[in-house]
Amino acid sequence: MKALGLLLLGSFLFFLPPVAAVQPASIEADEVVVRVPMPGRTVTAGYLTLHNPSDQLRQLVAVHSDAFARVELHTHTHVDGMMRMVQVDAIDIPASGKVALQPGGLHLMLFEPQQSLEENQSVPLQLQFDDGSQLQLDARLVMPPRR
């Protein structure tokens, strides 16, 4: 009897339509930029603003880009009177709110460009969120500010 039940269940599941592995994100983004790395450097930063129209807290948990070997989520903290960058596991996006990734705060660190990068070009970013959804973006390359 159990075998017959399992056989019927398996047959039923076989005919269900496949479920998409990746859902589109309900999170929206704007002001998406990546700085052109300074000459001789293999690391740069990215900034954007994430908007969460839902009534639940969401988290950005990873970012990938074909234009870079790796991308990390970072923030700045004060340690012993000095500002330091620290990698974080996730970035909270408040319910019905937004979070800005900007200089001096939360930001993306992008390592080892896989291509030549020039101002006004764009690079792809794939943002991954805690619910499994993803958001594909094109980040405009900008020059770092002059000091």
Give, in order, the helices and strands: HEEEEEEEEEE
Overall radius of gyration: 20 Å
Largest sheet: 10 strands, mixed
**What is the terminal-to-terminal distance?**
77 Å
Strand content: over 45%
Number of helices: 1
Stretches where pLDDT falls below 50 for ≥5 residues? 12-21
Strand-pairing-aware structural class: mainly beta
Helix content: under 10%
Mean pLDDT: 88
Number of strand elements: 10
Outline, from the CA principal axes? globular
Task: Reconstruct the topology from this structure.
Blueprint: H1 2-14, E1 28-35, E2 43-52, E3 58-64, E4 68-79, E5 82-87, E6 91-93, E7 97-101, E8 107-113, E9 122-129, E10 134-142
Parallel strand pairs: 1-10
Antiparallel strand pairs: 1-2, 2-7, 2-8, 3-6, 3-9, 4-5, 4-8, 9-10
Write up this protein.
Strands 1, 2, 3, 4, 5, 6, 7, 8, 9 and 10 form a 10-stranded mixed β-sheet that branches. The radius of gyration is 20 Å and the shape is globular. The model is unreliable at 12-21 (pLDDT under 50). The chain has one helix at residues 2-14; strands at residues 28-35, 43-52, 58-64, 68-79, 82-87, 91-93, 97-101, 107-113, 122-129, 134-142. The chain contains 1 helix and 10 strands. The protein is mostly beta strands.
